[in-house]
Amino acid sequence: MNDNHHLNILVQLAKIDGETDGSELELIREIGASKNVSDEDKEEIIEKTEAMDSLPSLEDLSQSERVELMTNLVMVMKIDGRIDKEEMKFCLKVLKKLGYDEEALFELVSTTYASSEPLDRDAIKQRAATFLK
Fold first, then answer.
1. For every one of its 133 residues, what pLDDT tens digit does the chain have, with 9 covering 90 and above?
2. 61 — phi, psi (to 5°)?
């Protein structure tokens, strides 16, 4: 299995509150499929990644990869219908490494969470891009 920092971070987020929701894992599998990660590798990442694994270096990510990760973090947080305090703390830690400030997360999460519309990846991604320093 090749290391996939993006999926590892999303799995950490899903596991951080101690209650991994099936909808979170399904979304992570869909994200992995969109990145051409094999089913076997996705399942291995889900199985082996722990909630408290250390974060990989994110310095080498391009701006588009940073926006993509930010977008997926927000989507995984929202998919189960609730945002846990531990999820927020974890995301803040990741976002600081990505070059976002705290206000970006609160703005993205609050506007996404308050919406009764289904998750709109493009809208979240567009908003996430405006917050990147």
1. 456 899 999 999 999 988 888 999 999 999 999 999 999 999 999 999 998 878 888 989 999 999 999 999 989 988 888 888 899 899 989 988 888 888 887 787 777 655 556 667 888 888 888 887 6
2. -70, 140
What's the rounded Cα separation, in Å, for the pair 106 and 43? 31
Q: Which two tokens stand for residue 91?
A: 């995301």
Per the CB < 8 A criterion, the answer to whether 55 and 9 are in contact is yes
Q: Which amino acid is at 100?
A: Y
Torsion, Cα 129 74 15 21, to 10 degrees, reads -150
In degrees, rounded to 5, the angle at the alpha carbon of residue 128 between the alpha carbons of residues 121 and 79 is 40
8 Å CB contact between 81 and 112: no
Distance CA 113, CA 6 (A): 22
Grouping H, G, I as helix, E, B as strand and the rest as coil, residue 46 is helix
